[in-house]
Amino acid sequence: MAALAQYSDTRLQSFDWARDIATPAYVLDVAALKRNLVRAAEIKRETGCKILLATKAFALPAAFPLMRDVLDGTTASGEYEARLGRDEFGKEVHVYSPAYAPGEIERLTGLAQHIYFNSPEQIAKNLPVLKAHPGIKVGVRINPGYSNATLGGALYDPCAPYSRFGATRDTLDRVPWDAVDILHTHALCESDDAGSIGLIEHVARNFGDYVRRVKTVNFGGGHFINKPGYNIGKLIAAIKAFRSAFGVEVILEPGAGLVVDAGYLVATVLDLHRNEKDIAILDASASTHMPDVLEVPYTPAIIGADAPGKKAHTYILGGKTCMTGDIIGEYSFDQPLKPGDRVIFTDMMQYSFVKNNTFNGVPLPDLAILNEDQSYKILRSFGYDDFRYRLG
Ligand SMILES: *Cc1c(COP(=O)(O)O)cnc(C)c1O
Fold it and tell me: pTM of the full predicted structure?
């Protein structure tokens, strides 16, 4: 069995499974997901709102039975995710895309019951198709002009200047409101309760005339409801106040907020290198397995490790690609690292495996599930064929 890089850390005593599992592997922690779902269930119970999973952030069919018990369905960014939601999750399927490809709306009418559009013109263009499917609820995404995204600056702010998302205020009188059921707004990213409440109150204050024309308001994703410090009591109060002011149904569609801190990426130290600093090369890579580390950018947490210099042994951790910038971060450990040590990155369920790639022929991590009794199951392993297939 491999050693865990920091087995002296008491938290690691519950990570025996990580010494044994083949790496690299993304591992969903079922107990953690269940804890997250309890909070979603409470928000639903207290407010009567609906909560959808945004599959953009997390699309793991093996977890859907668990999530389906609590959530009302999924929200998709286009045809393929809508089909995944319908086939694998069931319940309601909502879909929003900033633009639809030719024929996509026709195909979506067989997959989704709620289709959202980005502009009055898009709705007008598709009204003939939609009229032939009277069961389909029509949504319009508005750009509320409310910025709160807590990471990445404009990169993750749907209301950043010149954003392509949502009908701007000056176009809203052109929306055929009689044909619209849902007013949609997605403006947050990893936002705390103040952000969620701020958005809800902003819409109430500035878009009330439009809210009164619909049956449902969808406040999008980015509500970081399971991040420590997020006060769901305040969110509940804000949704209740909004519902009683306008008499509408409310939908939330978080992705990250449902699966934050609900799993790991387990990696192995392949080798050590020295170039003025100590460097450890892993079988996991920022470029291919944790693209957000480079895109946001941020430094993911490792169980038992600390910031550089805090513990006795500091290393730069990098991937085995030949991309110079494939650096995960710099960390310190109690013990020196050695080849074969396991390193456990936390919070690796959101925007991780859904975004990975086979750049440089780097093997894709396995997908695995850690059960509540600490047994684990490999859902899928990947090999050369997965790399080769996409090259035509
Ligand atoms: C990305 C996205 C979500 C989910 O966002 P999270 O930050 O993962 O909660 C919800 N709705 C829309 C329209 C999105 O684009």
Answer: 0.96
